[in-house]
Design goal:
Length: 208
């Protein structure tokens, strides 16, 4: 009985998150919790039973998008060569940014930051800052193992790499245009960006 109730509770939570992600993406932060509840086919009371506030729900949506994009894996426990890990991370990161929901959420956040400054802070904390911290920790591992001897500030280096990984496709997409790049072109760009980044910080050429 307990297992059944737990499973049912988790299903309700997923319904709420799915509805909230879709509505935040399409309509922005101004959407009401009543509408989210209706879209999720649950009561408003059920929504608040899982998420204490709209801020909490929005924050969880941002985190969930990163997790569903595959960016929640433990980089530090991955024993593959650094460049292989970063090739995969870069591909997943760019794919996430190219998603319609991620792009719409970004645009809505920027548009509504004057009237709802709290959402810009949440977006920054749970999106960019979370990814910078994750990547910085992994770069620290490479630095400590001697693979990045010239990397003195892993947080700044993480920011550099993430900005490089946006590429033409993401940059053009922010303005509503298709860069016309196929997957092979994008993958080549990502891998070359990672290689340039690693070489700049002294990554052993024998590993590339």
């Amino acid at each position: 009985m307990t297992a059944h109730l737990t499973q049912r509770k988790e299903q309700k939570r997923k319904q709420i998150l799915k509805a909230a992600i879709e509505l935040f993406s399409k309509q922005g932060y101004g959407i009401s919790m009543d509408v989210i509840a209706e879209h999720a086919n649950v009561s408003k009371q059920t929504v608040y039973a899982h998420f204490s506030s709209k801020d909490h729900l929005f924050e969880t949506c941002i985190i969930d998008k990163c997790m569903s994009a595959g960016l929640n894996w433990d980089l530090e426990s991955d024993d593959r060569p650094g460049h292989e890990v970063l090739f995969e991370y870069g591909w997943l990161f760019q794919n996430m940014l190219l998603g319609e929901e991620a792009r719409n959420t970004f645009h809505n956040t920027m548009r509504q930051s004057d009237t709802h400054p709290e959402i810009a802070k949440i977006f920054l904390e749970q999106g960019p800052k979370r990814n910078i911290a994750l990547l910085s920790d992994y770069l620290s591992k490479l630095k400590n193992s001697g693979d990045l001897p010239f990397c003195e500030d892993t947080e700044a280096a993480a920011m550099q790499l993430l900005l490089m990984l946006h590429g033409r496709s993401v940059y053009w997409g922010f303005f509503g245009f298709d860069a016309g790049e196929d997957e092979a072109t994008r993958q080549t760009y990502i891998n070359k960006s990672v290689e340039v980044f690693l070489r700049g910080y002294g990554y052993p050429s024998t590993l590339l």
